[in-house]
Design a protein that fits this description.
Blueprint: H1 14-27, H2 39-56, H3 60-72, H4 84-98
Helix pairs in contact: 1-3, 2-3
């Protein structure tokens, strides 16, 4: 699975809402105590993606889905290790369905 469903998607405050949701989700899961795939790892990946995007000249609506994918990328670790990437996509799609967003 991949985060292709996010391409070209924009909505005011979606990135902020996603950031708050993913960090809270991880804080209330086993991820808060993992030495890897932790909350700090997700924050680091989010910042690294912004840095790389700036270097590559990716901004605005092109950057938003990449940052959202970065936030969800390890949320599946809350439940499983092997296959957590696919579970992360399931979580993302579930949230988009709940919020009645495209891709959900």
């Amino acid at each position: 699975m991949a985060f292709n469903f996010l391409k070209g998607f924009t909505r005011p405050n979606l990135l902020n809402e996603t950031y708050e949701y993913c960090i809270a989700f991880l804080e209330n899961s086993r991820c808060k105590s993992l030495p890897f795939h932790s909350i700090e790892h997700t924050r680091d990946v989010f910042q690294y993606v912004k840095t790389i995007a700036d270097y590559e000249g990716i901004y605005g609506s092109e950057l938003e889905p990449i940052l959202i994918a970065a936030l969800f990328h390890d949320t599946g670790m809350a439940e499983i290790y092997v296959g957590h990437e696919d579970q992360s996509v399931v979580y993302a799609i579930g949230i988009f369905k709940k919020a009645e967003l495209p891709g959900g």
